[in-house]
Amino acid sequence: RLQRSLILFLLAFLFICGILSYPSLTEQWRGTSYSPFNDISQDMKGESTKVKAVDRVEAVREAFRHAWKGYKAFAWGHDELKPISKTHGEWFGLGLTLIDALDTMWILGLKDEFAEARKWVETELFFSKNVDVNLFESTIRILGGLLSTYHLTGDTLFLDKAQDIGSRLMPAFKTPSKIPYSDVNIGKGTAHPPRWTTDSTVAEVTSIQLEFRELSRLTKDPQYQHHDDNCHRHVLHMSTIRDDAKVTSLLAKCDISHFLHLTGCYSVFLLLEDYLQAIEGVRKNLLRQTSPSKLTFVGELSNGRLNPKMDHLVCFLPGTLALGAHNGLPADHMELALQLMETCHQMYAQMETGLSPEIAHFNLQSNNGRDIDVKPADRHNLLRPETVESLFYMYRFTKDSKYRDWGWDILQSFNKYTRVPSGGYTSIGNVRDPLNPAPRDKMESFFLGETLKYLFLLFSDDNELISLDKYVFNTEAHPLPIWPSTS
């Protein structure tokens, strides 16, 4: 009996040791996953040494290669990688991740990866499919990605493909109101509004001008710009954008991409008045400060009352304001940019994983000593780019190294909590739980198209690499050239 007890005890002990030592996925979500680029590295003498700035550039390249490894192995030619289940997800069936990543690979200097992606575009990318695509998403990701890659490389393959998809999106603009439908069947040449409503959003219909105007400029075919101009004129004459008392209503319904559109218009098409009115509307109606730390945030209006919540999406705004100030707008725009950038940083720094939630709720009165609360339904992180986008702009214009340090912290947290060993990165469900951040098994195409691109540009010392005086980024971070205004 004693021998049997000893044997059972030994077997149980070995079983427990085996579980503790097995490199399972659970350990990944406990923050013990491999990360080759730590902020503090140990030298031979055990002394800590700060990683040099050049290593941060290489860290982004390594992160891209790791993400690409997963995509190539398990989702090649498909829209999105599901890195944990080692399979793929489909949205339009047009290789969204690959197309979104084309100009990122070129900017990062990843020649081999770019060459294999180009071959797929040449031999496998065709748009004559019986499939509904969203006008906004396909414009900013596919059309924008192809146009940007053409400008960076000079390769007419990408312009030909851009013209093909651009022409197939035109049926969306054939509406009585001149406001385009949200969905287009690119094979049948038909279009319709979204299934759940009859309306298109202001954000979507006003955020696609850059791409269609550029397509007309390159092809000498005015139809793309003509249809989009009709839409834009209609939006400009909407009373809500002219009446300050009603601008609040517009802001409450509007996605932040509308303001990115206005910034693009300001930089390229000189629609300065609309941009200034939009920012003034934000200042007057939506800005508040938290307690106890007085963090400035942009709230939302609901039935005429301010809701003290801010989506991570809004964290593009510091960069937008800084870009405007760089182009001669009032200095107080830059002051606001500095304040909002601090808030977006805190949305990361105050979370246990170092990653921002999708939505943050801010305390206007100090009731628990915290500035930021996160509701359970809002605790996910989708690998979004908006904060690192603004960090890139802020560093370019101020040269303050803290913005690089903040971006480095974010990359470290991505590597610690979202990196999947077999390849790829995953969105997570709970930024408040470092022991189990609840991986969601999805890598959005914008992680390669935007997030890693902006991190690379943030860490690069080459200011002429996508100069902000020569290029404007579309909503999906695809750089397009700034041309002299002709209208």
Under the CATH scheme, which architecture of the largest domain would be assigned? Answer: Alpha/alpha barrel
- Any idea of the CATH class of the largest domain? Mainly Alpha
Number of helices: 18
Overall shape: globular
Strand order of the largest sheet: 5-6-7
Query: How many separate structural domains?
Result: 2
Largest sheet: 3 strands, antiparallel
Structural class: mainly alpha
CATH topology of the largest domain: Glycosyltransferase
Provide the β-strand percentage band.
Answer: 5-15%
The counted number of beta strands is 16
GO molecular function, one term: mannosyl-oligosaccharide 1,2-alpha-mannosidase activity
Cofactor: Ca(2+)
EC number: 3.2.1.-
InterPro entries: 6hp_glycosidase-like_sf, Glyco_hydro_47, Glycosyl_Hydrolase_47, Seven-hairpin_glycosidases
Description:
- Pathway: Protein modification; protein glycosylation.
- Belongs to the glycosyl hydrolase 47 family.
- Its cofactor is Ca(2+).
- It is a single chain.
- This protein has helices at 2-21, 25-32, 53-74, 96-108, 111-124, 135-153, 156-169, 202-205, 209-219, 223-236, 244-253, 257-269, 272-285, 317-326, 331-349, 386-398, 401-417, 445-459, and strands at residues 40-42, 48-50, 80-82, 87-89, 132-134, 183-185, 190-192, 287-289, 296-298, 300-302, 305-307, 309-311, 359-362, 372-373, 471-473, 479-481.
- By secondary structure, it is mainly α.
- The chain folds into two domains: 1-125 and 240-481, Glycosyltransferase (Alpha/alpha barrel); 126-239, no CATH class.
- The strands form seven sheets. A three-stranded antiparallel sheet has the order 5-6-7. A three-stranded antiparallel sheet has the order 12-13-14, with no helix packed on it. The protein has a two-stranded antiparallel sheet with strand order 1-2.
- A hairpin with a 5-residue loop joins β1 (40-42) and β2 (48-50).
- α6 (135-153) packs across α9, α15 (331-349) packs across α16 (386-398) and α16 (386-398) runs parallel beside α18.
- The termini are far apart.
- Mean pLDDT is 84; it is low at 17-50, 239-262 and 264-270.
